[in-house]
Amino acid sequence: QVQLVESGGGLVQAGGSLRLSCAASGRTSSWYAMGWFRQAPGKEREFVAAITWGFARTSYADSVKGRFTISRDSAKNTVYLQMSSVKPEDTAVYYCAARINRYVEKYDYWGQGTQVTVSS
Question: Which of 10, 57, 84, 96 has a Cα at 20 to 30 A from 116?
Fold first, then answer.
């Protein structure tokens, strides 16, 4: 049984900060990586950031580099997305996802999403 639950979304002013959390249940020790994705109205879902469980290697979309930081707490089975210097363009539903297989480019499990709205 796998469950991913996001939290921490809300309304924030441009230039402000917000931290999203993703609590995972299941055999996370056998998972390869966790990722954050987002989907804005009228847009397709896009990759934001990812982190491996093993050595916490990270990757980011160019649009968020230098502003967002992904991290994980293995003991708590939790992944975070620290959002700083947010922009109105960051407004979207943010989803947490789990990638099980290192050699298959697919995210297997998804959370329900949490809304982030950035006001100007």
Answer: 57
Entry field: residues in the chain: 120
- Tens of pLDDT, residues 56-103: 999 999 999 999 999 999 999 999 999 999 999 999 999 999 999 999
SS3 80: strand
In the numeric block, which tokens belong to residue 36? 């954050």
Check if the beta carbon of residue 50 is closer than 8 Å to that of residue 35.
yes
How many other β-carbons are positioned within 10 Å of the β-carbon of residue 58? 14
3-state helix, strand, coil in the chain (%, to 5): 10, 50, 40
The CA distance from 120 to 99, in Å, is 34
